[in-house]
Amino acid sequence: MEFTKVIQTKAVQEWKEKYIDYKGLLRKLKKVQWSIQFRNNQLHETTHIPSPIVPKTMHRNSISAMSAPSIAESANTLLSKVSHKLSNFSHWIHPPSIRRPSIPDLPPRSPITSIELFLEQSSPEEGAFILALDKELEKVTRFYTRKEGEIIYLFEKLKKYHENIRNSKEFKRPKSLASKFLRNSSSLEVPNEQFRSSKYKNAQKKIKKAAFELYRGAELLKNYRHLNKKGFTEILKKFDKITGLNGSEIYMERVSERSFVKSKGLSRLLKEIETFYVDNFDESRSQAIRKLKSHNKKDPHHNAALRSGLCLGLACAFLFFNVLRLQVDPEGPSIDDEMKLHLKFFMGLFIPTIFALLIGIAISWWTKLNINYKFIFELDPRDNLGIYQYLEIPSFIFLFLSFMLYTDLYNLFDLANATRSVYLGVTIVIATLILFCPIRIFHYNARRWFILTLGRIIGSFWFGVEFRDFFIADVLNSLSYTFVAMQLSFCYPLNENDQCSHSVYFLGVSKNIAAPFLSSIPAMLRIAQCLRRLWDTREMIHFNNTLKYLSTIISTVLFWFLLKDVDNMLIKGIWIASQTISSIYTFIWDVKMDWSLLEIHSSNYLLRDELGYKNPNLYRAAILINMLLRFSWVMILFSNDDKYYYIVGIIMPLLEISRRWMWCFIRVETEHVANCNGYRAIKEIHSLFIYSDGTAESNNENYPVNDIGVDEGLEAQKSKFDSILRGWVNRPMSIRVSKTNQRRDYNTRHDMSEELYNSDEEFNDDESGDMTDDIRGSGVKFYASRRLPTLDLEKGKENDSSTL
Questions:
Q1: 3-state SS, residue 99
Q2: Spatial separation of the C-alpha atoms in residues 473 and 330, rounded to whole Å
Q3: Helix or strand or coil: residue 798?
Q4: pLDDT computed for residue 146 by the predictor
Q5: 488 vs 800: CA distance, rounded Å
Q6: What is the mean pLDDT of the segment spanning 5-23?
Q7: 374, 159, 371: which is closest to 279 by C-alpha?
Q8: What are phi and psi of 799, to 5 degrees?
């Protein structure tokens, strides 16, 4: 495999701009090759000796009329003139038998003894290549030195934080009669671990996760060092092959003196993290290394692909028979009103399943285009599903729903019409068990991740908002049809008052008063998330986002009133106005805020400078399609009968999940671009041992952002209620990411790299970038100079540690 492909597939995508520009160096090396070929051609032309031209035989009468000396003289004169004018084209007129012999190439050059001497004697193209190589070497050295310093500094802070927790009075033995008795007893000794609170265990879990993230970051940096070193080796080999010089031998001596090759701090750091993990979390060294190391083996999962394919194939077979039963026309004589309600119910379950299958397509594209979706969704790199494993879950559910619909349509168990709702209840119960089964089967960890995310969404005002939380909550807004359809499984037996017989008949909003409430649940969850973000950041942008979802709820309620009185033109006009405002509002937010597009001064007109997908027309098409689908409700205005409503009721949810799938496709790409701009490749761990300036900034007070129950100090105790609500995720994170102008809608993974790599004047590397034997090297000193305040857990005071 060519090294260009190797560096594309194995590089840390968030750091790709900081790797050696191998392609750019290849282009400059190509210019060196062209210059050498050009000089060889010039040498051939300047050393060419023209051959004599054999004159054509003249006419016999002319020869006989002239004397021999005059003929010779005129021939020589003609020969000299032609030779002089056509010397550059002699190879066209020379007979093959008298062409000149080949001229040898340029003579071999003397070996390189030093780069400086070579630059004085080299061609402009060769000098430009060496200068570009120096620039890349400096870029790689600077980035590596700073990243190494960052990880070393954070690990030192983590160890100090852990030591403070162990020595804190909060986690010592409680003062009670029992403890006094045990303390005075010489025969009984109870270890302190039995008295540690659940808060201490929670803090230990966070420290354990932080250690894992630091180890993962060190592994990524190790891979960064290896690939760049190999890149310099490969490009210098090509340089030697083209020029015939010994450039790799001389230049690699300069490379070997740089910190990313010479430094031993990273290897020492990996061992120290392993030792820290073993000593504090009761693991053997082999187990600790196995848990710490990320497993990036590419397993094709052929069995999972086979199972997914079988499920989809059988599901399509059942759907074929279902269509035959429906006789294609849903208004056919064999389908009554009760069966239409059953179809609506199953439609509500098929919609999220189809969307999950579409997400599988998006995952395959993200993988192919090196979009690091696993890091964006904070999936465990040691245990996550591949594309085929993921598809097993929606494929199996799709097969189950197809079979249950087949069972219902054909009434395989010969149930009476009054009891056929049992099919609906059985379907919803089994589908729920598939997703929420507590047994460790059927990709338990993936299902657990999804369930925990749903729990975080429901309790978002208490737990804070991460990317996966707001992302899935936004997806739920496109599944409002499903929320309303689920009422059929409960209210169908109450068909006597004819309320449920009209449920879900009009596009997922019914005459039942529960319908607008159920349809608005996803929007209310997003409002809770926006209010939490507003509380955390005090940024009005989140209040504007709250208004967006509030407009959606208002439109839903107005449509319910419209269905109660279809002929009321006043309500209809108000609903059209509110729906128009909501559609425009959400469209602008999708494109401008979620996708970070419509930048006027962008190099990609009306898009943005950095694009994760190469074709800019993809974004333009997405903007147009998103706008059209946002106004798909206009189809309601042209309805004139129940059959049209029925068809629209099937089409609109499918259009909405198609629009949402397109939104997901670009939204994840936008987040990936933001991570690349900020060089974020590991999760945020600063919340364990730094403060947030938050709302106390004006009073010059810093409140702790941890939740381990330590003494916060007098001022913090006065704001205890505020601290409980805001929690450990309270930090100003609604920021504009550099270059993308993306206003974040969730808790970012705070990374110093945004200010770090934009403040080059604050950090000066020495010539060699050496930090081999000094763990407090230049990179560490830079991070220490950021003056991150720490929390003294024993005294409840703030220690402003500028150095380690």
A1: coil
A2: 33
A3: strand
A4: 93
A5: 60
A6: 90
A7: 159
A8: -105, 115
